[in-house]
Amino acid sequence: MLEQRYRWKNKHLREHIAVLDGLHAPHILLKNATYLNQVLRKWITANIWIYDDRIIYVGSNLPENIEGTEIIDCEKRFLVPGYIEPHSHPFQLYNPHTLSRYASHFGTTTLINDNMVLFLQPDKKKAFSLLREFRNLPVSMYWWCRFDAQTEIQREENVFSHTNVKTWLEHDAVLQGGELTGWPKLLDGDDMMLHWIQEAKRMRKQIEGHFPGASEKTLSKMMLLGADCDHEAMTGEEVMSRLMQGYAVSLRNSSIRPDLPKLLREIQELGIDQFDKFFYTTDGSPPAFYEEGFIDVLIKIAIEAGVPVIDAYNMATINIARYYNIEYLHGNIATGRVANINFLESPDNPTPVSVLAKGMWVKRNGIACEDTQKVDWKSFGFEPLVLDWEIDQDDLQFSMPFGIQMVNDVITKPYSVSTDMSYEELSFDHDECFFMMIDRNGKWRINTVLKGFATKLHGFASSYSSTGDIVLIGKKKSDMMAAFKRLKEIGGGIVLTENESPIYEMPLSLQGIMSDKPVELLIKEEKELKSLLQERGYSFSDPVYTLLFFSSTHLPYIRITPSGLYDVMNKKVLFPAIMR
Predict the structure, then answer these.
(1) Any idea where the Adenine deaminase C-terminal domain is (predicted)?
(2) How far is CA 488 from the centre of its chain?
């Protein structure tokens, strides 16, 4: 639990009152500020007093005491609340600290984060200590509580036990349950998941769905069971269907689903002109997707699509805060709110020139401020990955009668293997590769064939996956072993080899899943990885998501999971994992 249940202690609240009485000076005074007042739906000019991380006053008055106050004349600026990302997966090569810092430079100063990686950490005390550590960062972080692993893991009932889920749900920083990637189990009668939903409701917390392609009947059932919002609408009709059943709708624009322009066009064609139930989300895209910005890019898309300017900003701010019952802290510029404020050159350009986060400058006059906050990841159990086991030729036996064929970046289907896989190397004349997943503790493995990933890939190893297990792919077994060896040496990450020598490596020093490098550097590294893979026959656009979703059973049709090759549609393991 958080050591401090309330954001401000009594003594802080008394200090805030003392600022109004002139006994203390505000730390920052924003004079002549034209700001977006979302209650009146107007741009209004006022003076804004800030003390520590809080807005103390918004109005025409000036403070009596300005000793030591930083005074900024905002006459040529337009001020809006800090943007909110309501559906963040902060473990896509980057980590929560580096992602939040990067996002804040583009005005996104509140993130509501997936807790999957932290949930799977065996030491819950360290996980919750890390959440406390994140409170020291300028960006505001909140969390979800997952109810399922999004794949078939061994002893899932022990990992997602009632005690573990309830402990997370009760945490003050957790705002919602979900996302419900395991909703088919819920419909099939999983009463434990239903109980967790009921508990979340009792705590006045929201439930996030995950319902791609769901029928109106399914959406109705999930609403009856407790779902509140869904981010999987891919057409205007699907948006309308969700609205009709009472859902809030996150309009997604991500690396594999850049749907926002299409969604906005289609919902307006359907006559939808009220936007209070809409949010934006980038749905945890890989680093390179954020090269041009974050939620600010989505606001700009909305403005260009003809959404009224105030609604375009509200979908990134107050709509989300109201939905999560945190309007008293976030989503608007008003007395008592956290001082997250973006300074714009004009209302039609949502990328800020300056950013305040919790009353601290994270960007000023177009220049990012120095990051003085550090996270000691080792003290929270995130160290380089230690693989104290080996693989040998016996592990590299591929005799399965069918393999996995890639349909697109993330969808995989079964296919019959006709190629003789008994050789040490495969021909570059086709797009089939050896494919193996190995337990990160070396206890089991799954060997099959992957079609459609590459044609000229010698060896590839990755500890980045949705389960944290090791993925090996390649045409040459010797290069696959060389890639694995180098992966061990760098403490986890992604490695490509040719002629048994590394030609590319991306160290992921935090448990082999996340990097501690700034997002700006990861953008360059990810683009290089994509280029090298495409040169070797990868015909899709997003190798990071491909790696992440090999094991994800919320997508059809066949997945490689810790339990074995899994048929998603029929909900059964086709070939179990082999114990080593």
Answers:
(1) 410-571
(2) 27
Q: How far apart are CA 37 and CA 60, in angstroms?
A: 14
pLDDT confidence of residue 153:
82
Q: Is the dihedral of CA 282, 285, 289, 293 positive or negative?
A: positive
Whole-angstrom distance, CA of residue 102 vs CA of residue 104: 5
Separation of CA 512 from chain center: 17
**CATH classification (class only), 10-76:** mainly beta
Q: pLDDT digit string (tens) for 496-547?
A: 999 999 999 999 999 999 999 999 999 999 999 999 999 999 999 999 999 9
| Torsion angle defined by CA atoms of residues 289, 290, 296 and 297, in that order, rounded to the nearest 10 degrees | -30
Cβ-contact 35, 78 below 8 angstroms? yes
Query: What does the domain layout of the chain look like in residue ranges?
Result: 10-76, 81-327, 393-579
* Among candidate residues 387, 378, 420, the one with its CA nearest the CA of residue 401: 420
Quick count: other Cβ atoms within 10 Å of Cβ 116?
Answer: 17
DSSP 442: S
Q: Is 292 exposed, middle or buried (0-12, 13-18, 19+ CB in 10 A)?
A: exposed
The count of C-alpha atoms lying within 13 angstroms of the C-alpha of 459, restricted to the half-sphere facing its C-beta, is 26
pTM above 0.70, yes or no: yes
Q: Which CATH architecture has domain 81-327?
A: Alpha-Beta Barrel (3.20)
Is the preceding peptide bond at 6 cis, omega within 30 degrees of 0?
no
317 contacts 350 by C-beta, under 8 angstroms: no
Confidence at 5, pLDDT banded by 50, 70, 90: low
Query: CB-based burial of residue 450 (10 Å sphere; 0-12 exposed, 13-18 middle, 19+ buried)?
Result: buried
Exposure string for 399-436, b = 16+ CB within 10 A, e = fewer: ebeebbbbeebbebeeeebeeebeeeebeeeebbbbbb
- Per-chain mean pLDDT for the chain: 96
- Region label for 42, one of left (φ > 0), alpha (ψ between -120 and 50) or beta (otherwise): beta
- CA dist 521 and 44 (Å) reads 40
